[in-house]
């Protein structure tokens, strides 16, 4: 349930109302926008007398929120959420260009790619240290050592870093990581989501291979219900009957998620397509569709990559893509 307050309601009146609602054992989330203040009520709202609440002097209107996601819902928070990672802002008109290799492979590799993507316009460095691989015999990532190398690349370039967590037992290793990625395969690992909700780290939450947008939003809700509101939703392609591409990029997710939620939306055209030649056109299309950012795999030698070489761009290809994305952004404002 939400209560929209009248323009001009004083902070004292708002506080008084919140206290009254809290006495009904409801959690009250306050969203103060330039135009309106919205109180989002979570808990057993059947205790609330809607007519009484609507009749209060400072209350403009009261509405039930029928969707099961509440805190992630735009009705709870009409303004776009803006996530701050160091000096980089994401959402609400601020664009994140995340780029880097699928996996951290060596110090030379990650430093070289970090410098190259920064020069080409990236403002966040990606790199997997813990890798969820389909085969147990495939390269599993460098683990904690990979995170140390990402931190070295961050120190060299100043780029904030994003890297995937697979198991909550490794959380301590992520203390200096700027954005924690929850991969597609863990989107519904609810225990992991709840624990990440107790941190204040920005989370890049990827859509599961076969999950609906509502399920993605419910996973964001798991994190938010524990107190962490810094979430970016990532569309990375879903399983369909099409086999030409690795997955099928659901571009309509950008508009749907923006309509349903206030959280920033990031598109990953690398995992969505699995083919380097398809990454630039899909990145451009996602930008035109209004995404708040992109996450792109870039490798200094894609042919030698230990993971996902076929979908990785060279730094030169990334630079060209980055320029196109910039032009699209200027065209759509
Ligand atoms: C990745 O970003 O390298 C990755 C494994 O992505 P996803 O979870 O989307 O497959
Ligand atoms: Mn990958």
Please give the structural blueprint.
Blueprint: E1 2-5, H1 11-22, E2 27-32, E3 37-42, H2 50-55, E4 59-63, E5 83-85, E6 88-90, E7 96-100, H3 107-119, E8 124-126, H4 144-157, E9 161-165, E10 179-182, H5 190-197, E11 203-206, H6 213-225, E12 231-235, H7 252-260, E13 265-267, H8 269-273, H9 279-288, E14 293-297, H10 315-332
Helix pairs in contact: 3-4, 5-6, 9-10
Bound molecules: phosphoenolpyruvate (PEP) and manganese (II) ion (MN).
Manganese (II) ion binds next to loops.
When the domains are counted, the total is: 2
Rounded mean pLDDT is: 97
CATH topology of the largest domain: TIM Barrel
Radius of gyration from the alpha-carbon trace, in angstroms:
21 Å
Give the ligands present: phosphoenolpyruvate, manganese (II) ion
| Helicity range | 25-40%
Question: Roughly what fraction of the amino acids lie in strands?
Answer: 15-25%
- Through-space gap between termini: 34 Å
Shape: elongated
What's the β-strand tally?
14
- Second-tier CATH architecture of the largest domain: Alpha-Beta Barrel
SSE pattern, N- to C-terminal: EHEEHEEEEHEHEEHEHEHEHHEH
The low-confidence runs, each spanning 5 or more residues with pLDDT under 50, are none
CATH hierarchy class name of the largest domain: Alpha Beta
Helical segment tally?
A: 10
Look at the structure and name the CATH superfamily of the largest domain. Answer: Aldolase class I
Which structural class matches the secondary elements?
Answer: alpha/beta
Largest sheet: 8 strands, parallel, barrel
